[in-house]
Amino acid sequence: MADSLKQRPGPMRLIDATQYRLPLAAKLSILHRASGMLMFVLLPFVIWMFDTSVSSEISFESFTSVLSSPLAKLVVLGLIWAYLHHFCAGVRHLWMDATHSVSKEQGRSSAVVSFAISLVLTVALAAKLFGLF
Amino acid sequence: MSHNYGSKRIVTGAHYGLRDWLVQRVTAVLMALFTVVLLAQVLFGGPLGYDRWAAIFSSQWMKSLTFVVIVSMAWHAWVGVRDIVMDYVTKSLGLRLALQVATIVWLVGCAGWAVQVLWRL
Hints:
The structure holds two protein chains of two kinds.
Chain A: H1 2-6, H2 24-41, H3 43-55, H4 57-67, H5 70-99, H6 104-129
Helix pairs in contact in A: 2-5, 3-4, 5-6
Chain B: H1 17-43, H2 50-56, H3 60-88, H4 93-119
Protein backbone atom coordinates (compact mmCIF):
# COMPACT_ATOMS: atom_id res chain seq x y z
CA MET A 1 0.00 0.00 0.00
CA ALA A 2 2.70 2.45 1.05
CA ASP A 3 4.82 1.61 -2.00
CA SER A 4 2.01 2.08 -4.47
CA LEU A 5 1.15 5.39 -2.85
CA LYS A 6 4.71 6.63 -3.29
CA GLN A 7 4.60 6.01 -7.03
CA ARG A 8 1.56 8.17 -7.57
CA PRO A 9 2.40 11.38 -9.39
CA GLY A 10 0.24 13.46 -7.07
CA PRO A 11 -2.56 15.79 -8.00
CA MET A 12 -2.40 17.20 -11.51
CA ARG A 13 -1.74 20.90 -11.70
CA LEU A 14 -3.23 23.16 -14.33
CA ILE A 15 0.27 23.92 -15.65
CA ASP A 16 0.85 20.20 -16.34
CA ALA A 17 -1.85 20.24 -18.98
CA THR A 18 0.25 22.58 -21.12
CA GLN A 19 3.14 20.09 -21.17
CA TYR A 20 1.23 17.46 -23.14
CA ARG A 21 0.33 17.31 -26.81
CA LEU A 22 -3.38 16.85 -26.39
CA PRO A 23 -5.52 14.65 -28.67
CA LEU A 24 -8.61 16.32 -30.13
CA ALA A 25 -10.97 14.80 -27.55
CA ALA A 26 -8.82 16.26 -24.77
CA LYS A 27 -8.89 19.70 -26.38
CA LEU A 28 -12.68 19.42 -26.59
CA SER A 29 -12.74 18.42 -22.94
CA ILE A 30 -10.59 21.26 -21.61
CA LEU A 31 -12.58 23.72 -23.72
CA HIS A 32 -15.76 22.23 -22.22
CA ARG A 33 -14.37 23.37 -18.88
CA ALA A 34 -13.16 26.73 -20.14
CA SER A 35 -16.47 27.51 -21.85
CA GLY A 36 -18.39 26.57 -18.72
CA MET A 37 -16.15 28.78 -16.61
CA LEU A 38 -16.56 31.66 -19.07
CA MET A 39 -20.35 31.46 -18.88
CA PHE A 40 -20.16 31.20 -15.08
CA VAL A 41 -18.10 34.40 -14.91
CA LEU A 42 -20.32 36.25 -17.41
CA LEU A 43 -23.57 35.11 -15.76
CA PRO A 44 -24.43 38.61 -14.44
CA PHE A 45 -24.07 39.99 -17.98
CA VAL A 46 -26.42 37.30 -19.31
CA ILE A 47 -29.01 38.11 -16.65
CA TRP A 48 -28.54 41.83 -17.32
CA MET A 49 -29.35 41.16 -20.99
CA PHE A 50 -32.40 39.12 -19.97
CA ASP A 51 -33.49 41.88 -17.55
CA THR A 52 -33.14 44.84 -19.91
CA SER A 53 -34.43 43.07 -23.01
CA VAL A 54 -37.61 41.76 -21.41
CA SER A 55 -38.57 44.17 -18.60
CA SER A 56 -39.95 47.18 -20.52
CA GLU A 57 -39.86 48.88 -23.87
CA ILE A 58 -37.60 51.61 -22.44
CA SER A 59 -35.10 49.10 -21.05
CA PHE A 60 -35.28 47.24 -24.37
CA GLU A 61 -34.04 50.45 -26.03
CA SER A 62 -31.02 50.63 -23.72
CA PHE A 63 -30.44 46.91 -24.34
CA THR A 64 -30.25 47.41 -28.11
CA SER A 65 -28.08 50.52 -27.80
CA VAL A 66 -25.53 48.78 -25.53
CA LEU A 67 -25.56 45.69 -27.75
CA SER A 68 -24.83 47.79 -30.85
CA SER A 69 -21.28 48.49 -29.65
CA PRO A 70 -18.59 46.20 -31.13
CA LEU A 71 -17.16 45.40 -27.69
CA ALA A 72 -20.52 44.15 -26.41
CA LYS A 73 -20.95 42.15 -29.59
CA LEU A 74 -17.55 40.56 -29.05
CA VAL A 75 -18.54 39.53 -25.52
CA VAL A 76 -21.83 38.14 -26.85
CA LEU A 77 -19.91 36.26 -29.54
CA GLY A 78 -17.73 34.75 -26.80
CA LEU A 79 -20.88 33.68 -24.98
CA ILE A 80 -22.36 32.24 -28.18
CA TRP A 81 -19.25 30.16 -28.79
CA ALA A 82 -19.11 29.05 -25.14
CA TYR A 83 -22.77 28.03 -25.17
CA LEU A 84 -22.52 26.14 -28.46
CA HIS A 85 -19.29 24.38 -27.51
CA HIS A 86 -20.60 23.48 -24.06
CA PHE A 87 -23.89 22.29 -25.58
CA CYS A 88 -22.25 20.07 -28.21
CA ALA A 89 -19.63 18.67 -25.83
CA GLY A 90 -22.42 18.02 -23.31
CA VAL A 91 -24.65 16.19 -25.80
CA ARG A 92 -21.56 14.18 -26.75
CA HIS A 93 -21.21 13.15 -23.09
CA LEU A 94 -24.86 12.13 -22.91
CA TRP A 95 -24.49 10.15 -26.13
CA MET A 96 -21.37 8.41 -24.74
CA ASP A 97 -23.19 7.60 -21.49
CA ALA A 98 -26.28 6.30 -23.25
CA THR A 99 -24.59 4.17 -25.89
CA HIS A 100 -21.31 3.30 -24.12
CA SER A 101 -19.42 4.83 -27.05
CA VAL A 102 -16.15 5.17 -25.21
CA SER A 103 -13.53 3.70 -27.55
CA LYS A 104 -10.57 5.81 -28.63
CA GLU A 105 -11.85 6.05 -32.21
CA GLN A 106 -15.39 6.99 -31.16
CA GLY A 107 -13.94 9.59 -28.83
CA ARG A 108 -12.05 11.14 -31.71
CA SER A 109 -14.81 11.05 -34.29
CA SER A 110 -17.42 12.43 -31.89
CA ALA A 111 -15.00 15.22 -30.95
CA VAL A 112 -14.64 16.07 -34.65
CA VAL A 113 -18.44 16.20 -35.02
CA SER A 114 -18.83 18.35 -31.87
CA PHE A 115 -16.18 20.83 -33.01
CA ALA A 116 -17.64 20.97 -36.53
CA ILE A 117 -21.21 21.69 -35.38
CA SER A 118 -20.29 24.24 -32.71
CA LEU A 119 -17.77 26.12 -34.87
CA VAL A 120 -19.97 26.27 -37.98
CA LEU A 121 -22.90 27.57 -35.92
CA THR A 122 -20.61 30.05 -34.15
CA VAL A 123 -19.36 31.44 -37.48
CA ALA A 124 -22.93 31.65 -38.83
CA LEU A 125 -24.19 33.48 -35.74
CA ALA A 126 -21.12 35.76 -35.75
CA ALA A 127 -22.01 36.78 -39.30
CA LYS A 128 -25.59 37.44 -38.21
CA LEU A 129 -24.44 39.34 -35.10
CA PHE A 130 -22.15 41.67 -37.05
CA GLY A 131 -24.79 42.22 -39.72
CA LEU A 132 -23.20 40.39 -42.65
CA PHE A 133 -26.62 38.99 -43.60
CA MET B 1 -7.86 8.62 4.78
CA SER B 2 -5.91 7.50 7.85
CA HIS B 3 -6.19 10.97 9.41
CA ASN B 4 -9.71 11.81 8.34
CA TYR B 5 -10.85 13.01 11.77
CA GLY B 6 -10.44 15.98 14.08
CA SER B 7 -8.62 18.95 12.60
CA LYS B 8 -7.33 16.73 9.74
CA ARG B 9 -10.81 15.75 8.65
CA ILE B 10 -11.46 16.39 4.95
CA VAL B 11 -14.56 18.52 4.85
CA THR B 12 -14.62 19.46 1.17
CA GLY B 13 -14.13 16.11 -0.57
CA ALA B 14 -16.56 14.33 -2.84
CA HIS B 15 -18.76 11.82 -1.06
CA TYR B 16 -21.76 12.20 -3.29
CA GLY B 17 -20.34 11.54 -6.76
CA LEU B 18 -23.27 9.65 -8.30
CA ARG B 19 -25.83 12.24 -7.23
CA ASP B 20 -23.77 15.09 -8.68
CA TRP B 21 -23.11 13.12 -11.87
CA LEU B 22 -26.84 12.50 -12.29
CA VAL B 23 -27.82 16.06 -11.35
CA GLN B 24 -25.43 17.47 -13.92
CA ARG B 25 -26.95 15.33 -16.67
CA VAL B 26 -30.59 15.83 -15.73
CA THR B 27 -30.17 19.62 -15.47
CA ALA B 28 -28.26 19.60 -18.78
CA VAL B 29 -31.14 17.83 -20.53
CA LEU B 30 -33.63 20.31 -19.05
CA MET B 31 -31.57 23.27 -20.28
CA ALA B 32 -31.13 21.69 -23.73
CA LEU B 33 -34.91 21.17 -24.01
CA PHE B 34 -35.48 24.76 -22.90
CA THR B 35 -33.08 25.92 -25.61
CA VAL B 36 -35.09 24.08 -28.26
CA VAL B 37 -38.43 25.40 -26.92
CA LEU B 38 -37.16 28.99 -26.76
CA LEU B 39 -35.50 28.79 -30.17
CA ALA B 40 -38.69 27.46 -31.76
CA GLN B 41 -40.65 30.41 -30.38
CA VAL B 42 -37.99 32.93 -31.47
CA LEU B 43 -37.59 31.56 -35.00
CA PHE B 44 -41.28 31.04 -35.81
CA GLY B 45 -43.86 33.81 -35.46
CA GLY B 46 -42.58 36.75 -37.44
CA PRO B 47 -40.13 39.57 -36.78
CA LEU B 48 -38.78 39.73 -33.26
CA GLY B 49 -39.31 43.04 -31.47
CA TYR B 50 -39.84 43.87 -27.82
CA ASP B 51 -43.53 42.90 -27.78
CA ARG B 52 -43.06 39.39 -29.12
CA TRP B 53 -39.89 38.78 -27.06
CA ALA B 54 -41.64 39.81 -23.82
CA ALA B 55 -44.76 37.84 -24.77
CA ILE B 56 -42.69 34.65 -25.01
CA PHE B 57 -41.88 34.89 -21.30
CA SER B 58 -45.29 36.12 -20.18
CA SER B 59 -47.19 32.84 -20.52
CA GLN B 60 -47.44 30.91 -17.27
CA TRP B 61 -46.03 27.64 -18.62
CA MET B 62 -42.99 29.46 -20.05
CA LYS B 63 -42.45 31.27 -16.74
CA SER B 64 -42.53 27.99 -14.84
CA LEU B 65 -40.23 26.31 -17.36
CA THR B 66 -37.80 29.24 -17.22
CA PHE B 67 -37.86 29.06 -13.42
CA VAL B 68 -36.95 25.37 -13.55
CA VAL B 69 -34.13 26.19 -15.97
CA ILE B 70 -32.75 28.96 -13.73
CA VAL B 71 -32.56 26.53 -10.81
CA SER B 72 -31.08 23.86 -13.11
CA MET B 73 -28.47 26.30 -14.39
CA ALA B 74 -27.35 27.27 -10.88
CA TRP B 75 -27.21 23.64 -9.71
CA HIS B 76 -25.41 22.52 -12.89
CA ALA B 77 -22.84 25.32 -12.60
CA TRP B 78 -22.31 24.51 -8.92
CA VAL B 79 -21.38 20.91 -9.74
CA GLY B 80 -19.08 21.99 -12.58
CA VAL B 81 -17.30 24.83 -10.81
CA ARG B 82 -16.90 22.69 -7.69
CA ASP B 83 -15.22 20.03 -9.86
CA ILE B 84 -12.85 22.65 -11.24
CA VAL B 85 -12.03 23.98 -7.77
CA MET B 86 -11.43 20.47 -6.42
CA ASP B 87 -9.15 19.63 -9.37
CA TYR B 88 -6.94 22.70 -9.30
CA VAL B 89 -7.05 24.09 -5.76
CA THR B 90 -5.24 21.30 -3.94
CA LYS B 91 -2.75 23.04 -1.70
CA SER B 92 -5.02 24.99 0.60
CA LEU B 93 -8.26 23.62 2.02
CA GLY B 94 -9.12 27.07 3.33
CA LEU B 95 -8.83 28.60 -0.13
CA ARG B 96 -10.86 25.76 -1.62
CA LEU B 97 -13.65 26.25 0.92
CA ALA B 98 -13.57 30.03 0.38
CA LEU B 99 -13.88 29.59 -3.40
CA GLN B 100 -16.73 27.13 -2.98
CA VAL B 101 -18.58 29.52 -0.69
CA ALA B 102 -17.97 32.35 -3.17
CA THR B 103 -19.32 30.14 -5.97
CA ILE B 104 -22.52 29.46 -4.03
CA VAL B 105 -22.97 33.15 -3.21
CA TRP B 106 -22.39 34.06 -6.87
CA LEU B 107 -24.86 31.47 -8.18
CA VAL B 108 -27.59 32.08 -5.61
CA GLY B 109 -27.28 35.84 -6.20
CA CYS B 110 -27.51 35.44 -9.99
CA ALA B 111 -30.41 32.98 -9.74
CA GLY B 112 -32.27 35.32 -7.40
CA TRP B 113 -31.86 38.20 -9.84
CA ALA B 114 -33.05 36.09 -12.76
CA VAL B 115 -36.12 34.89 -10.84
CA GLN B 116 -36.89 38.49 -9.83
CA VAL B 117 -36.81 39.57 -13.50
CA LEU B 118 -39.00 36.61 -14.46
CA TRP B 119 -41.61 37.06 -11.75
CA ARG B 120 -42.32 40.74 -12.27
CA LEU B 121 -43.18 40.26 -15.94
